[in-house]
Every structure is written in structure tokens, then in C-alpha cells.
Amino acid sequence: MFGAERHHAYNRVLLSTVLAGGLTPESIRLHDTEWAQTHRVELRTGVAVTGIDVSTRSVHLGDGAGHRYDELVLATGSRAWVPPIDGLLTDDGAHAEGVAVFRDLDDCAHILRLARPGSRVAVLGGGLLGLEAARGLVGRGVRVSVLHPVGHLMERQLDAGAGAVLGATMGRLGVDVRLGVMAKRWTPEVGLECDDGSLLSVDAVVVAAGVRAETSLAAEAGVEVDGGIVVDDRMGTSNDRVHAIGDCARHPGTVSGLVQPGYEQAAVLADLLTGTDPSARYRGTPVVTRLKAKDIDLAAVGDAHAEDDGTSEVLRLEDPHRGRYAKIVVRDDRLIGAIMVGVPDAAASAIQLHDSGAPVPSDRLALLLGRALPSEAGGAIRPDSPARLPSAAVICRCNTVSKAKLVAAWRAGAKDVDALSRVTRAATGCGSCRDAVSGVCDWLNAAEPGEPEQEGAA
Ligand SMILES: Cc1cc2nc3c(=O)[nH]c(=O)nc-3n(C[C@H](O)[C@H](O)[C@H](O)COP(=O)(O)OP(=O)(O)OC[C@H]3O[C@@H](n4cnc5c(N)ncnc54)[C@H](O)[C@@H]3O)c2cc1C
Q: Is 365 inside a domain boundary?
């Protein structure tokens, strides 16, 4: 296993929490040398693969060495995209003075060096990453402006109504949100000039303008690339000895840039390469996006952009003064999309309904209000009854901890929420699943002294 970063693998999703000061870099580490030895992995950190020779089945390494393979797995992720704005990059393509991106641990440390309490920072991009960075920095006493070229925040996941509620909430938390504005030129001594004629005298610029799949190795080796490395349901590429998973892979119908598809793809590929399950196939992952920002509860599920076109029902509840917005899109009695801002109970129900594919309760409005517990008669899942959750249900999305993992940890001796968190890392990310973990724990403890009854019955 070769990794270009000098660090051992860590949970990248939790970098936002590190930036906000809620976690240390050490606490998000996923493995170390001991892990590698125990699992008989030959692990080389700080070593980039610089080329692939598919004819000899070998890779070239940055330290000049080479390495043969029988099967090659590309998990090269994605990299931050820097838009062509004057002054952001030096002539040799490096980040200019005062400019940072937000992709890895070193970037995180760089941002924290630039953004001292009391300093002024512009964040380019009001998507998920930019907003998490902005919220984290404001919490550290930095004065932050977010520049977003579109008319509302997080337009990929949110509609205009939800975006407006989110913008107002960010404003209340101290973030200066500027919509429909693009940066034009960055000069460290002058500041950031914008296309609306304004000049922001900021000390640093954090670029969060999107990511691009890291596909250069594959493309140079002649493996088919189209926005990402093109893969099939077996995670196979156009070369039968080369496989790709995670952000760098492009699987039809899968939204990339989120961690859960990568974990599921890795599991399928491991089953296939080891022969554990030759029938394993990856069929896509339901998309759930959560904003990990203190004092903001936001979830976007599935396709929430649909409008009421006769084939789907769209219900919306707006309470902008209290920072709340709830929208569901229902087709054939199934939830195909939802946007939930400031309504955590409704968000929990919506995520479970979307993940399980269970029928939406007939009282749609109660679901929007977070009061609806889907009718058991209809076979749906009550958010408060872990016994009915399928084993594979993901309880903690930041760390991809399923109900089955929690049950296994409980059986191995982790009998309270803190112990379950320590062992599985559940609830150590954004923390929004802590109640759910507690619910699973209570249910398991109530089932003592015997084994928990039939799990995953639903
Ligand atoms: C701050 C932040 C917050 C995020 N929050 C969320 C979230 O809440 N939910 C969510 O689902 N997703 C989130 N994401 C996205 C998530 O982190 C990615 O989807 C996930 O990390 C992709 O995993 P991966 O293994 O495919 O790629 P990566 O995690 O990018 O790992 C790829 C690794 O390969 C290395 N590499 C690249 N090229 C080479 C080479 N030639 N040789 C050797 N090594 C190489 C890279 O250095 C990198 O270490 C977040 C991302 C960031 C940056």
C-alpha cells in the first residue's frame, strides 16, 4: 500500500472537526505501523506512485523504485480544484502566499497557521466544505467572509428556500455570506478584489471551490477515464488487472465525493479479489449529505430537487425566522429526496425512510414536523426502535458505523455509549448520531442477560 501523504491514514471527513478545534489530528488517525504489521500490510507512507506500466504489471514509485503487482487497486481520491483567479497560484503552479485549499491534514495545519484569531479570511465556495471551514474558523475567533458565485448556498444539495435559511443561520453565527459574487484577483498586500467591485481586505484565502477526481495515473496508463476512472459493478476498469474505488472512480449512477460509496466499493472489491464472495457487486449508494458545523443541523437526502410534476409529491415547510426548513419528495409512496435544516428529528426519520425504502406514513405533514413515526402496520421503521433497524443500517455516517458493528462491539464488552464510541468511533464525528447510538445501546442493554432478540427483522 503506497500513500503519497506522509501521515498514516486518517478519517478525512473529520478534518472539519479538527479545523474547528473539536478533535486533534492524532484522534482521527485510522491506522499505524502496528495495524499494518498485524494485518500483514506492507505500508509505505510518503511514497507516491508516479506511473503504471500495465504491460509489465508494475508501478513506478517517487523514490525511484518499482513494484510488481498481480492486481492493482487505485484509490487515489480527489484533489482540490483551484479556479483560474488571478494571484491564487504562482507561476510554477504552487499556492500563492496566503492561499490554502482544504483537502488533507497538512492543508488543515496550513489554514490554522494563516487564520489566527482576530484575522480576516475569505472562503471561496459556499458548498459543504467551504461552509464547514467557515463555521470552524468563526468558532476560533476568525472573521470570515464566504464568497459564493451562485444565488444560494450549497446549490447542489439544497433548493433556494433551504439555501436562504442556511445563509441566514450562517449570518447569525457570524459568517459574512456574499452570494452571486466571484473573486477576481488576490494580492496579499491589497486583499481580494471581487467582480461586484468590492475589495475584501483579508489576510488569507481558503479555496473550497470543488474537487476533481485524481485520475492522472490511470489516464497516462491508458485506462479509460471520463471525469473519473470508469468502473463497472465489480469495480473493474478497462484494464482487467486494474481496479478503482472511492473518489477517483466513476460508477454509473453514483455521486462521487462522499465517503460511504468508497467504503462499500472497497468491501465489494475485497470480496471479489479474495474470492470470499465471487458474486459481490456494487449497485450504488443512497446519498445522504450532512453539514458538520456546530449549531447547524442540516441533512440532504437523495434527489430533493424534484418539483411537483404530477409523478411526485413535494411537501415543504418553511420557518426562516427560527432557522428551520423541511422538504420531502415522495414518489410511489417512497421518499426519494429530502432537505432538512434545523429539524433533527424529521431528518432522522427521513434518512431512515430513504435508506430502508420503507413506505412514507400517510400523514406526510407529521413527518415534516418530525413527529411522524411511520406506521408499523406499513412495515416502516420507527426511528426510536433499533430492534427494527436492518443490521446494515448506517448509524454514524461520519465513521460509517452500522448497527451490526455496534452490536458486535456491545457483544465484545462495550456496554455504554462512551465505550461504543471508543471502540467503533460512532458519534465522534459531527456527533449528530449520539442519540441513535444511545438508543441502540439502551435496546441492547435491555435485552440482557441474553442476546439481543432478532435484529434486522425489518
Ligand atoms: C474537510 C473534508 C470534509 C469532508 N466531509 C465529508 C462528509 O461529511 N461526508 C462525506 O461523505 N464525505 C466527506 N468528505 C469527502 C471524503 O473525505 C472523501 O469522499 C473520501 O475521503 C474519499 O476517500 P478516498 O479514499 O477515495 O480518497 P482520499 O481520502 O482522497 O484518499 C486518497 C489518498 O490517495 C493518495 N494519493 C493520490 N495519488 C497518489 C499517488 N499517485 N500515489 C500514492 N498516493 C496517492 C492521496 O494523497 C490520498 O491520501 C470530506 C472531505 C474533506 C476534505
A: yes
